[in-house]
C-alpha cells in the first residue's frame, strides 16, 4: 500500500509533465567502446559494469527538509572542479544518447531515482533525450590560482533548457567566492541582479548552484519550482589515448527539489579530448544514479521495503557522447 506522502509525490509528477519515458528506456546490452586505456579509477568508470558511491555518507548529506531530516542545512559543498587550460573560453556542445543500464535490476528502480523525472538529475536533465540544437557553455580562468573552472551561472540555465525546452529558468545563484553554502544574490532572466557591481561573485568558482524555473504541467498551465544542486566530491585525472591527452572528471552530487521534497544523488564521470586543430573537444559523459535505502523506504510499500539491493552501488547508469566546438562570445550569445 502506498503511503500518503508517496501518493502526493506521484500526483505531483503526474501533474508536472515531469515523468520521462525513463522506465521504458531499453537496457544497454553492449558496453560502450572504450576510448581510454588506463588503470586510473575515474576513467575506468566510463566502461565499468558496477559503479560505487564515493561521496560523503548518506547520513551527512541529507538535505534539511522536514520530511528528510531535522538538519536545517544543505550538504557541505566540496571544492569546485577544475579543468585543463585548453578548455578556457566558450563552446557549443551537442549531446547524443548512447544507452542506459540498470545494474541491480528494474525492480529496484523508484520514482525517487535521479533521472526518473524531468530535471531530477542536473547532469542529464532529461534522460534519453537528444537536444535538438547545441547550447553554449563557458569555462573561465580564476585570477587567483590560475585554474580553469566551469561557469555554472552561465552554463546551467542553458543546459537545463536545452534538455527540457518547455521549461524556462527564472533565476540562478551560486556559492561563487565562498568555501561554504553561502549563495550569491539571485540573477534573474530579466537581467536584474546579474551585473558585476551588484553580484560580483556570481561567476566565480562554484560548487553549489540553485535556480528557479517554471515548466508545463500535464493538466495545463505552468508550475514554478526550485532546485538546489551541491557538488559533494570531485576528482580529476589525465590519461593517454593514442598519444592524445584525455582529461577525466568524476563528480558526485546531491540535488534537491523544494516543491517535490525530493533529494536525488548521482555521480557524473566525463572525458574530454582535444581534437581537430585544438578547436573541438570530443568526449563521453556517464551518470550513475544512486538510491539510498532511506529514500527508497519513503515509498512506503511492502514490496519496496522488501527489495534487497546495495545502496552504495548505482541502480541506473546513463550514457551520452558529446562534441564541443570552440566559439567566440558573439556566437555563444546567439545560441
**Largest sheet, if any?**
11 strands, antiparallel
Runs in which pLDDT lies below 50 for 5 or more consecutive residues are 1-23, 26-40, 65-71
Helix content: 10-25%
Overall pLDDT score: 85
The secondary-structure element order is: HHEEEHEEEEEEEHHEH
The proportion of strand residues reads 25-35%
User: Tell me, what's the shape?
Assistant: globular
What is the tally of helical segments? Answer: 6
Strand order across the largest sheet: 3-2-1-11-10-9-8-7-6-4-5
Which structural class should the secondary elements be placed in?
A: mainly beta
Radius of gyration: 19 Å
Distance between the termini: 48 Å
SS elements, strand count:
11
Write the layout of secondary structure elements.
Layout: H1 4-15, H2 41-44, E1 89-101, E2 135-141, E3 148-150, H3 152-163, E4 168-174, E5 187-188, E6 208-216, E7 222-241, E8 244-257, E9 262-275, E10 280-290, H4 293-296, H5 302-305, E11 316-327, H6 329-334
Antiparallel strand pairs: 1-2, 1-11, 2-3, 4-5, 4-6, 6-7, 7-8, 8-9, 9-10, 10-11
